[in-house]
Design brief:
Layout (H helix, E strand, L loop, with lengths): L9 H10 L24 H16 L4 E8 L5 E7 L17 E4 L3 E3 L31 E4 L5 E2 L2 E5 L2 E6 L1 H4 L10 E3 L13 E8 L13 E2 L4 E5 L28 E6 L3 E18 L2 E12 L12 E4 L9 E8 L3 E6 H8 L2 E2 L3
Parallel strand pairs: 2-3, 4-14, 11-15
Antiparallel strand pairs: 1-2, 1-14, 4-17, 5-6, 5-9, 7-8, 7-19, 8-12, 9-10, 10-12, 13-14, 13-16, 14-15, 15-18, 16-17, 17-18
Length: 356
């Protein structure tokens, strides 16, 4: 297996070591009898280094969906390997002498392009995120480029006087196939959106997704994101009334154990907890597989579903630390949801969240 320089991880490791949430209860006898193959308490940098060193070989094993740094049951940083199914053959006994955890998540798939042949959704009430909303529309609701069925509006973002709607590439740029100037609808076509009557803006810019070709020769992606030019007359900056409201403009870094929430086109308001950081995962799209590195993993029953791609993940709780943008949701599996770190997304487009 190939060693990678630790320098590129130094900043992440230093910050993460301060932010890791340790779940070891007071008086846990495991504190006095550590696993000799486990990482030293709080040694987050070592966990990242081992994950990065062994990750490429792990991801080349059929049935391995991804890897991440997590918190083990003893409260120590650990490497977790995500599996498509139980009983994957060929897994190593240790990672260079370090033990690791496994979790059967199923395959990860992009969560846009919801229900391509579904009829338009009925607006059951004023907060139904699939409905056609009066302008300016809220965030967290159905949207999509004219050839995409539906995803979710993440947020209103700004750069100087310019106003944009933020979502995923595969929601607003149709997996690299769209062109700048293509109309963006609310709701998406599967939810009854009509071009051009229901347009709220036009595609302005997107980060191309680099697909694996041939698998497993996969370039690493960092974000699945795009922005559409719009106006404050067309797009608001708060969720429907049954959501978390207006996100804060100040972002927050993902931390293990951090409570988070989102509002999305399919599952509406949901809450979960961050269980993996620095994740590298293979994500299935309609026409190929792409590998994403440096991702956030969120665990919760029914945190997301098809059509929730593009949702803004914000911090949970209450008070001044609540509603801070953390990630841009783009994919998931049966048990877990994936998000791009929001700061990477905002820097790519030189924009800021237009929030409270």
């Amino acid at each position: 297996m190939t060693d990678r320089p630790l320098a590129r991880f130094a900043a992440l490791a230093a910050a993460a070591a301060l932010d890791v949430v340790l779940f070891r209860p007071a008086g846990d006898p495991a504190a006095d009898a550590p696993d000799p193959l486990a990482f030293a308490r709080g040694d987050f940098a070592a966990a990242i280094a081992v994950q990065e060193r062994h990750g490429p070989d792990l991801l080349s094993i059929p049935g391995v969906a991804g890897t991440a740094v997590t918190t083990g049951p003893d409260g120590r940083p650990a490497v977790r390997v995500y599996l498509v199914r139980a009983g994957v053959p060929g897994l190593p006994a240790t990672l260079g002498g370090h033990s690791y955890l496994t979790e059967v998540t199923g395959a990860f798939r992009a969560l846009g392009d919801a229900g391509g042949t579904a009829p338009p959704a009925a607006a059951s009430n004023d907060t139904d995120p699939k409905r056609l909303f009066p302008r300016p529309v809220p965030i967290g609701v159905s949207t999509g480029q004219v050839d995409v069925t539906a995803g979710t509006i993440a947020a209103r973002v700004v750069s100087g006087d310019d106003v944009f709607a933020l979502s995923n590439n595969h929601v607003y740029a149709n997996r690299n196939a769209a062109k700048p100037g293509d109309r963006i609808l609310q709701p998406g076509t599967v939810d009854g959106g009509v071009n051009p009557d229901d347009a709220i803006g036009t595609l302005h810019d997107f980060e191309p997704i680099r697909f694996c070709s041939p698998f497993p020769a996969c370039p690493e992606n960092r974000i699945d994101a795009a922005i559409a030019a719009t106006t404050t007359d067309q797009l608001g900056n708060a969720t429907p009334s049954n959501g978390y409201g207006t996100p804060r403009s100040e972002t927050a870094a993902a931390r293990l154990g951090m409570p988070v929430q989102k509002y999305g086109r399919t599952t509406g308001p949901t809450a979960g907890r961050i269980t993996g950081v620095n994740a590298t995962v293979n994500v299935g799209f309609r026409d190929g597989t792409a590998r994403f590195a440096g991702q956030i993993v969120i665990s919760a029953d029914d945190f997301s579903g098809p059509g929730d791609s593009g949702s803004l993940v914000v911090s949970g709780g209450s008070g001044p630390t609540a509603r801070r943008p953390v990630g841009l949701l783009f994919a998931g599996s049966r048990t877990s949801t994936l998000a791009n770190p929001i700061d990477l997304v905002l820097r790519r487009f030189d924009v800021a969240i237009d929030g409270s």
